[in-house]
Amino acid sequence: MTATGEADLRALRRRVALDSTAMAVSAMAFGIVYGVAARGAGFTIADVVFTSVTVFAGGSQFAAVGAVAQGVAIPFIVVMVAMLNARHLLYSAAMAPWVQSVPRLQRAAMAYALSDEAFALGIAHFRRAGRADVTGYWVGAALGTWFPWLVGTSLGAVIGGTVVDPARLGLDVVFPAAMAGLAVGLASGRREHAAAMAGAAIGVGASLAFGTGSGIVLGGVLGPIVGLAVPEPDAAR
User: Fold this and answer.
1) For residue 61, which of 39, 48, 96, 234 sits 20 to 30 Å off, Cα-Cα?
2) Are residues 58 and 142 part of one domain?
3) Are residues 204 and 154 in the same domain?
4) How far apart are CA 70 and CA 63, in angstroms?
């Protein structure tokens, strides 16, 4: 790579860091709420930190805490968490063509950090760079989710019930707004627009009818299928 190429890559990494800022605010805020909720469900501070490090999936962690608080049996909690996290199979499939040349151990580490935010930031960065950039991926994954989530959950576990609900401060819209902005930049063709619209419609409808977990899975799986069914123009093919 030329010196100019290196400079361009550094500029793209700075953009990833900037894009991750809004997501970091939301991740930390809801991490605090998770920590408080987990303590209320009987988790110790060590339990909260351990689950955040090992599971590292905010939606499924919230669902699991709620189920534990209600006394749901462990096998049912495992199935529920698996359903909520099924969308990560699609994230991995989308990332795979970009990272084929990356060593396996590095790919395994990237898979661990492949949250919703890390995927959106990483795939957008790869497209702008025209290739995989592991350093840029970790900039977004670490700054956008991993570090603020762990800090937030730890703080929530320590401070208990003194935290204000982030929804009252308007922080609940930060992450969806940031993800929507990234999604607009990623959708560049007829199929992608169709997949995004179908996935959103199916996800909302299924969530209202069957619950959030079902909406995430059905929208994430059926949206891309609808997109693939849409013919591309001859020039695009």
Assistant:
1) 96
2) yes
3) no
4) 11
